[in-house]
Design goal:
- It comes from Kingdonia uniflora.
- This is F-box/kelch-repeat protein.
- It holds the Pfam family Kelch_KLHDC2_KLHL20_DRC7.
- Strands 3-2-1-24 form a four-stranded antiparallel sheet, with no helix packed on it. A four-stranded antiparallel sheet has the order 4-5-6-7, with no helix packed on it. A four-stranded antiparallel sheet has the order 8-9-10-11, with no helix packed on it.
- The two termini are 25 Å apart.
- The radius of gyration is 21 Å and the shape is globular.
- Among the domains are: 40 residues, no CATH class; 162 residues, Neuraminidase, CATH 2.120.10.
- The chain has three helices and 24 strands.
- A hairpin with a 3-residue loop joins β18 and β19.
- It is mainly beta.
């Protein structure tokens, strides 16, 4: 069947891959052939190989609530929503609300980009504060949400989460409803909507950070039940080929350092923000400062990576508006590094809790 009457299918595909992701959901309505085409992995691989894919950064971001001088010491918890930022166009937008959550997404949920989908896992109900094990999947090709299979095991909070960007999301650690730190771990196949338990980590790890790179799921830092708030220095690494935790690095972080700003690029280079600096991991065991963080984002820092760039958000003070910068490396032999401030509309200036990136 011809994709476009009168044109060879190869030429027709060259036309279709130029459709921006915002219009993906309208393409299937044209005809069955277009619906099949845009749903195929070959179509999106061709977009990527042709340099036509688009990067989307997804941020769980609070409503920007003005701080009143008469509000008192404690302010109401703001509602968080899933906002998107397109680095190439500078466009900000908001995803549709998760079904059943008209008052904002679950607090402290985790999210991961998998293929052309966004997976949101767990969190606390923003109204009742009940812990949830629910899974929601947003498909960018149809612009719709679907309910996934619940995360198994005990109801857990503040767990590590990362994806292989292809079809699997990994979770590990966190704590149960009795505040007991956990060592259990699971893998979620998004295509088959199926959870599989993987072997436990060697240690309990509450408030740990998950990173996936080089076929391995890294679980960084965290702390045990009896060491509340005293973060570990170590990292455990799950090898997806051997289905084993293959390494426990005892000096990956400094004792007491929260790992939430640790990120990795597509090439596997790890970065973190600490003590007002951007640092890079050298030779797997030494962190080296490469730049200072701008002063107006040093409070409430959050970092998302895509390609060889970092999107860093934060404020100049507690309760202040969120500012956004891109940290990137220049081209050429010098490989100079520089910050570029991102124009951020007021509606997207709230605190960022979590985030991830996808290539569409």
């Amino acid at each position: 069947m011809e994709l476009i009457p009168g044109l060879p299918n190869d030429v027709a595909r060259e036309c279709l891959i130029r459709v921006t992701y915002q219009y993906f959901s309208a393409v299937p309505d044209v005809c069955k052939a277009w619906k099949h085409e845009i749903g195929s992995s070959q179509f999106h691989q061709l977009r990527k190989n042709s340099g036509l894919s688009q990067t989307i950064v997804v941020l769980a971001q609070a409503d920007p609530v003005p701080v009143s001088e008469s509000a008192g010491k404690y302010s109401p918890v703001p509602a968080y929503w899933l906002n998107t930022y397109e680095p190439e166009t500078g466009t900000w937008d908001r995803l549709p609300a998760i079904p059943g959550y008209p008052n904002g997404i679950p607090l402290f949920c985790q999210c991961a980009g998998v293929g052309r989908s966004l997976v949101v896992i767990g969190g606390w109900n923003p109204v009742t504060w009940e812990v949830s094990n629910a899974v929601y999947v947003y498909d960018f090709t149809t612009a719709t949400w679907r309910r996934g299979s619940n995360m198994p095991g005990p109801l857990r909070s503040l767990f590590a989460c990362a994806s292989d960007s292809d079809r699997t999301v990994f979770v590990a650690g966190g704590h149960d409803q009795e505040k007991n730190a956990l060592s259990s771990a699971f893998a979620y196949d998004v295509a088959y909507d199926k959870w599989v338990q993987i072997i436990d980590m060697e240690r309990q790890r509450d408030e740990c950070k998950g990173i996936f790179t080089g076929g391995k799921f890294h679980v960084i830092g965290g702390y045990s039940t009896h060491m509340q708030g005293k973060f570990e220095k170590s990292v455990e690494v799950y090898d997806t080929l051997t289905s084993t935790w293959v390494q426990v690095d005892k000096d990956f972080m400094e004792t007491g350092t929260c790992p939430k700003t640790c990120v990795t690029t597509e090439e596997g280079t790890m970065y973190r923000c600490t003590s007002g600096n951007i640092e890079v991991l050298m030779n797997g065991d030494l962190w080296r400062k490469i730049a200072e963080v701008p002063e107006d984002i040093r409070v409430g820092l959050h970092v998302v990576t895509w390609q060889d760039k970092l999107l860093v958000t934060g404020s100049d003070r507690y309760g202040g508006s969120c500012n956004t910068y891109v940290f990137e490396f220049g081209k050429g032999k010098a490989k100079e590094k520089y910050w570029k401030k991102v124009e951020t509309p007021n509606d997207f200036s709230g605190h960022v809790q979590i985030g991830c990136s996808l290539e569409m």
